[in-house]
Amino acid sequence: MNTKLSKATLDAINNEDGCATGLPNRAYTSEEFFRVEQQQLFAKTWTCIGNGCSVPGPGDLQPVGFLGQPLVMLRNKQGDVRVFHNVCSHRGNELVWEACQVKNTIQCPYHGWAYDLDGRLLATPNVGGSGVHSIDCLDKNEHGLRAARSAVWMDLVFVNLSEDAPDFESFIAPLQQRIDKLVAKEKFSALRPAASHGSYTIDFAGNWKLCVENNLESYHLPTIHPDLNAVSKLEDHYHFYGDDLFAGQGTLKYDHEQTNLDAFPVFDGWSDMVAEYPTLYPNVFLGLQADHYWTRFVQPVSAGRSLDHLQIYYLGDAADNPDFDAARAHRLEVWAKVFNEDIGVVEGMQRGRCSSAFNGGVFTPIMDKPSHHFAKWVAKKLTQRNH
């Protein structure tokens, strides 16, 4: 199947003079297309692979599959999150098979080669025969774990496998500047991951791009989220854009005291009733509210299957104080209801991409504009490959 986009298709997608066309069906259904975008849309930029709180203490290890490659996320003795390729330098065995904690070293289950938490090769037992643990031709300094280029921002862990993206601070600066207008950067240091009722994963039968497109727009609020629309109506929402980095929506009617149960502490100086939901391309969603913060990242599994990972954070003791346990449970229930309401239409759109009567559909110039912004980004990245 041809993964290139013709000039006519690109012109229809990039149309700014009215209604535009969406990406063709094959962009959502073709495994060949999926493989191409893994390299063009994910490997060549900064892509999220997890949350730092999944490796909370020194020695915590979390294996991660990304773009078909085995990686391992860990926290070293200095408290820094590092990402390495999850393969032993000896015979390529996958080192870490499941989340675990080690004291000082990562040991390969095959021949026992051992690495420290900064990837240095420490031990090669019996490599020269029984009881002989070193040989002249093997320089341990040259056979440590290979580090993946990584960065941590707002507890999200990013990697750049091509290693040629701009430095992370330059990459994220436009979105950071927008967030700084809501609350000063240093105040975010008070956020901590919820100790209970703070995370979950949705496994859905849909292409990752459909999840992104759906998350970007508020047009579907009255039909898919009637309860949410009752308190934060369609007309209360606005859209915003950040060049080739992000787009999103916000609301002027977020009520952080929806019930007496949800009386969480709030950021000082936060604009009353405002909440914003940026989507950072290619796969990160942020929920920025006065009393809590959540992250979601979409993990593409195949052309027709994805995982959506949620993590919630609260200010100070609200994250782990047992007195807030019921409130945390209620807040997770509220968000889980909203996000699960989207699954039916995302999976419905995926099935619709198999129809010969549909091939891209329509982006209208007002209500679909954020989703259109993302589709243009995808087309641009794929076009750069073609050139």
Could you explain how this protein is built, in words?
- A hairpin with a 2-residue loop joins β18 (292-302) and β19 (305-315).
- This protein is α+β, with helices and mostly antiparallel strands and 387 residues long.
- The longest helix is centred in the last third of the chain and has 28 residues, at 325-352.
- The protein has helices spanning 7-13, 26-29, 31-43, 168-182, 208-216, 221-224, 226-231, 325-352, 369-386; strands at 20-21, 47-51, 60-66, 69-75, 81-85, 100-101, 105-107, 114-116, 121-123, 150-153, 156-159, 191-193, 199-204, 237-242, 246-251, 275-280, 284-288, 292-302, 305-315, 362-363.
- The protein starts with 6 loop residues before the first helix and ends with a helix.
- Strands 12, 13, 14, 15, 16, 17, 18 and 19 form an 8-stranded antiparallel β-sheet that branches. A 4-stranded antiparallel β-sheet has the order 5-4-3-6, with no helix packed on it. Strands 2-11-10 form a 3-stranded antiparallel β-sheet, with no helix packed on it.
- The chain has 2 domains: 7-46 and 185-386, Naphthalene 1,2-dioxygenase Alpha Subunit, Chain A, domain 1; 48-153, Rieske Iron-sulfur Protein.
List keywords for this structure.
alpha+beta, Naphthalene 1,2-dioxygenase Alpha Subunit, Chain A, domain 1, Rieske Iron-sulfur Protein, 8-stranded antiparallel sheet, 4-stranded antiparallel sheet, 9 helices, 27% helix, 26% strand, globular
